[in-house]
UniProtKB/TrEMBL annotation:
Gene: tol-1
Domain (TIR) ranges: 1050-1174
Organism: Caenorhabditis briggsae
Pfam families hit by this protein: LRR_8, TIR_2
Keyword vocabulary terms for this entry: Leucine-rich repeat, Membrane, Repeat, Signal, Transmembrane, Transmembrane helix
PANTHER family recorded: SLIT RELATED LEUCINE-RICH REPEAT NEURONAL PROTEIN (PTHR24373), TIR DOMAIN-CONTAINING PROTEIN (PTHR24373:SF275)
SUPFAM superfamilies reported in the protein's UniProt record: L domain-like (SSF52058), Toll/Interleukin receptor TIR domain (SSF52200)
Annotated InterPro entries: Dev_Immune_Receptor, Leu-rich_rpt, Leu-rich_rpt_typical-subtyp, LRR_dom_sf, TIR_dom, Toll_tir_struct_dom_sf
Family to which this protein belongs: Belongs to the Toll-like receptor family.
Identification of the protein by name: Protein CBR-TOL-1
Domain of life: Eukaryota
SMART domains with a match to the protein in the record: LRR_BAC (SM00364), LRR_TYP (SM00369), TIR (SM00255)
Signal peptide (residue range): 1-20
Ranges annotated as spanning the membrane: 993-1017
Alphabetical GO biological process terms: defense response to Gram-negative bacterium; embryo development ending in birth or egg hatching; signal transduction
Amino acid sequence: MRRKPIFLLLLFLLVLSINATDQPPDECPKFCKCAPDPVQPTAKLLLCDYSTNGTVVPLADANYNNQISNIRSLFITCDQRQFRFPDAYFKSLTALHHLRIVGCHMTHFSVKLFEDLSSLRTLELDQMSPPSTGAFEMTEDALMPLARLEKFSLTRSFNVELPQRLLCSLPHLQVLNLSTNGLPTLRREETCVAQQLLIVDVSRNQLTSIEQFLRGVPAIRQISLAHNSIAQLDASTATPFLQQLDAENNRIQESISLPDTVVHVNLAGNLLRKIPDAVSTLPSLVALNVSRNEIESGNSSVLASSELEMLDASYNNLDQLPTEWLQNCDKRIAHLHLEHNRIQEIPGGVLSNATNLQTLDISSNRLRVFADSILPENSKIGNLRLSNNSLEVLEPKSLEGLKLEHLDLSHNKLSEIPSAIAKVEQLKKLDLSNNQISKLYQYVLNKIKQLHTVDLSNNQLQSIGPYIFSDSSELHSLDVSNNEISLLFKDAFARCPKLRKITMRNNRIKSLDEGLSEASGLRRLDVSNNLIVVLKWSALPENLEILLADNNDINLLTASTSSKLSLKTVSLATNRITVMNAEQIPNSLESFDVSFNRIARLGKGAFGEKSQLRKLNLKGNQLTVVPTESIRILEGVHPVKLEISQNPLICDCQMTWLLSSGKTSRIQILDDAQCHHAIDQHPIPLKSLQKKDLLCPYQSICEPECICCQYGNCDCKSVCPASCRCFRDEQFNINIVRCAGSNTTVPKREFVVSELPVSATEIILSGVTLPQLRTHSFIGRLRLQRLHINGTGLRNIQTKAFHTLPSLKTLDLSDNALLSLTGDEFLKCPELQQLFLNGNRFSSLTRGIFEKLPNLKHLTLHNNSFEDVPRVISSLSKISLSGNPLRCDCSAKDEQYRHSAGSAHQQPFWEHNAAEWFAQHRELVVDFQAVECWENVTKAFLTNDTTVLSAYPPNVGPDVFVMRMEEFLRDYNTTICVPFSSGFFGQDPQNSIIFVIVSVSIAVLLCILVVLAVSFVRKSHDAINQRRYKASSLNCSTSAGSSPLPIPLLSYHAFVSYSKKDEKMVVDQLCRPLEDEDYQLCLLHRDGPTYNSNLHAISDELIAQMDSSQCLILVLTKHFLENEWKTLQIKTSHQLFAKNRSKRVIAVLGDGVDANLLDDELGQILRKHTRIEMRSHLFWTLLHSSLPSRLPLPPNDDSSQLYSDIYGIVPSDVV
C-alpha cells in the first residue's frame, strides 16, 4: 500500500522533467554571453563582445526567448575598432539600468539610439575615440531620453565635445566622471544647474579654470581636479557643501579659497611655498597632503583644525620639525609623514603630547642622533621609520615605553645594534640593513620576545655568536646577506623554534658543519655566493625544505643516507660538481637545480628512487651522454620537467628516453636543447629527435643472441676496421661504417673491402685507396642499404662486384675515375633506387645498367664528359647533368632528313641531341639552371664536326665557347637557329661557314709557301758558307740554331729522361758516373729541345733524339710524374720509343714511387722492361747488366771524307 503513493510521486516528477526538457533553453544573442544580474538575480546581465568583424543586429531581433525586456545590465566591448550601432539596437530594453560601452570607436550616437532606455541609471563610456585621429561628440539630442540617468562616465577618449546643456539634459545626475579625456575647457550654459550632482571627477585633462562649471553644481560634496593645469581655485561661495578636494599635480601657488566644510585636502605636487591660509584656517580639517611642493620651515601659520589626523609634508624643504603646525592638533594627529626633507635635529619633547601618534616617518633626512624623550612613553606609535639618515646614535631611552611593531633604521651609520631596541618588547619587524654593524652582542635581540623579522643585510658582520637570538621564540625570518660572515657558532640559532627562513647570501662561509644544528624549525636556507666546498647533507636541519647554495665552490656532495631529510627544493647552480650519483641526491627532492656546474657523468640510477621529483635542471654542464638508466625514475609520481640545454650532448643510443619526452611523457624537456649527431656532429633539436639519430660508436661488438663471437669468422660479430669509425643503434638495426683516407700515411695501403662488417647497413668509403673493385667484393652483406665509395681513385669495377645486395637502395660512386659501366656489376640488386656517378669520366651509358636496375629513380651524372645526353635516362625521375661538355645544335640536318623521308611526323634526327632532349625532359633535371652547352671551336673545325655554336667566338680560354642551356632553348626559335641573310652565299649560315673555312685554308697555304721559300733561300745561303768553313758540333739537339748530325753519325748509348726539379740529383748520382765510364748520354733538359708544358703538341725533334739512342733511362720521381709525364710531347715520345722492340727501357724508381699505383700508360711500359729501385744496394750492378753493350760510335775525325763532303772543311782543334 505504501508503494503506490511513492510510484505516483515518481511519475509526477518524471512528467515535470519531460515538460522542462521540452522548453528550449535561453539562447543569448550572437556575440553575447548571458548571466544573472549581480544586483537583481532574477534579471539578466549580457556581456557582448564585437571585437571580430560581424554584422551587428538589434538585440530585440535576436532569438532570446522573449527575455529582452528582462535585461538589467549590458556590457559591450569592441576591442578599439571602428563601430556603429544600429538605430534600433537598444529597442525594447525598457528595464535596462546599467549600460557600459568600451573600445567602440565612433564619432557620435544617433538621436534614436537611446529612445527606449528611459529606465537607464548608469551610463559608462570608455575609449570612444582613438588617441590621435579620432573625435567623439556627445550630443544633447542623444542624451534627452536619459532624463533619469544618475551616473554618467565618459573616460579615456580624445577630442571629446560635450554639450553645454549637459547638466540640463541630465537633471537627476549624481555622479559625473569626465577624467582622462584631454578636455581644455568645461563650459556649461548658465541656466543649467545640477541640484543633485554630488561627485565630479575631471582629473587628467587640460583644464586651466573650473569656477564657471562649479557654479552649476551647488550641492557637490567631492571633486577631483588632479593632473590639470589649474593655477587658482575659488570654491568658497559656489560649493558651500564641499567636503573633499583633490587638486594634486596642478599649478596652484597660493590663490585658493575653500568653504569651511572641507575636511580632506590634497594639494600634493603643486607650487606651494607655504600652506595657503584658506587651508590652514579650515576648522574641521582631518587630512592634509602638501607633499612634493616647495614649502620651507617658518612660512606657515598654525593649523586651526583640532581634528587633524593625517599630515603629509614629505618631499619639501623643511629643515626642522614643523611643531607650530601641530599646536592645536598634537593630541589628535595619528599619521605624520616628513620623509625627504632637510631635518637635522628633533629636539626632545617636541612630540611629547602626540599620544595618538601611530605612524612617524622621518626617513631620508639628515638626523645624526635620535634623542631621548622625543616620543611620549604612552604613545600609540607602532611604525617608526628613520631610514636613510645619518644616524650614529640612538640614545638608550629614546624608545623606552613605546609599543613599536615596525622599526626601520636602515641606511644609516650605526656601528652596533642600539641597546635602546632591547626595551621595545612588542617589536615585530626590525630593519638594520645597510649600516656599519660589525658585531652582534647578546642580551639585545634575545630580550625581544615578539620579534618576527630581522634584517641585518649589508653590514660588516664576521660571525654569528651563540645565543644572539635565544629566547626569540617568535623569530621567523633572519637576513644577514652581504656581510663578511665566515663562522657560525653551534648555538647561533639556539632556542628559536619558529625560525623558518635564513638568508646568508654573499658572505664567506666555507662550511655548515654545526652552525645550523639548533635551527630545528628552519624551512628555507639561502647560502648562495659563499665559499662552501663540501656540502654535507647531515649538517642541514631535518625539517629544511628549500636550500639555495648557488655560486659557491661546491665540488663534492656527501652521501644522503638520512631518510629524515625533508628537502624539496635544492639549487646548486654555478658550482664545481663533476659527478652525480644516486646516494648524493636526497630522495625527497621535488626540484633540483645543478645547472652550470661541471657534471660530465650521471651515475647509474642517479634519479631512480627520486619518486617525488618534478623539476630537474641540468643546463650548462659538460654532459655528453645521459643514459636511460640514469634518468629513469622507477616509481615517479609526477612528470619531470627537464632543462638540459647548453650541454655538449651526443645523440647516443643510450639516450632512447629522449624519444618519448613529449607532453604526455614522464620527462618533459622545457628548453630548446639539442644533441650532436654521432657521425657528422650536426645539431639536432631534442624535440625533433628520431630513433635513427641515436647511435653508439664501437670497435668490436656482438649482436644479441650471436653464438659465434668466440670465433674469428662470425657474421654477427662486427669489428671496426682500422682508419674507420663504426656506429650502431640500441637494437642493432643500424650499423654504419665510415672510413676515410689519411694524407699522412706513405705509401698508401690499398683498402681491404673484406674487412668491413658483414652486418653493416651503411658503408661510406671516402678518400681511401681503392683503385679496383673485384668480383664479389660486397657479397653476403644482406642488410646493406647505403654504399658510398667516393674519392678513392676507383678506375675499374669487375663483373658482379655488387652481387647479391638485396637491400641496397643507394649507391654513391662519385668523384672517382670510372670510364664505363656495363650493368653486369649490379646483379641481384633489385632495390637500388639512387645511383650517384657524378665526378667521374663517363662519356656514355649502356642500356644494361637500367636493365639490371629496374627500380632506379635517381641518377647523378654531373661533372662527367658527356657530349650528348644518353636517351636511356629518360625513364628516371630525377637526373643531374651540369658540368658536362654537352654539345648543342639546331635542326638544320633535321629539315633535310624530313624532306628526304617525306614524312612530317618522323622523329627528328640530331647528331648532337642535348638541346632536343632538354626541350622534352627539362623537368627531370634537378640542376637545369646550371647545365651549359660547350663547343670546342678549334676542335670542331679540325675534325670537321661543327654545330651552330661553332661560329661563335670562344669565351672560355682560347678554344671553348660556353652558353647556358636555358639561354640556348630560350633563343632557339628567335635568333640562334633562325636563318638570316649573311655572308656571301645567301641566307644559309652554313655557306658562310664554308666560305670562312675556304678563305682561312687559302691564307694558310700562302703562308706555308712563303715560309718554304724563305727556308730554301736560307739553306742555299748556309750551304755556301758551309763549304768555306764549318765548326764541329757534338750536340745531340736538333733544335733551331744547332747543327743536327745525320742519324748514322749520331748514336748515343742512352737517353736520360728525368724531371727538371731533379736535375742536380740525376747528374751527380747517375749521369756523371756513367760518363766517367765513357758512356755517351743525351739528357732531356740539358741536350733536348725546350718544351712548353701548356702546349699540347708532339715534338719531332725529341722523337729523333730518342731514336738516335740505344736505350732509354727513365728516372721516375714524384716531380716527373706530376710535371713532365703529364705533357703530351713527353708521354707520346716515350710511348713510341717503348714500342720499338730493338730498343731497351730502364726504369729507375725514386723514393715514394709505387709501381702499382702508376697510370695505365706508364704501367704498360714498366711491365715489358727493366725496373730498378734507386735505393737498392745492387743498383749499379743491375744497371750495368741492363745497359746495352757500348757500340763504337762513328769516328769524329776531321779527315773523314764523308764528313767533309757533307759539312765542308772543318778546322782542327788548335784552330
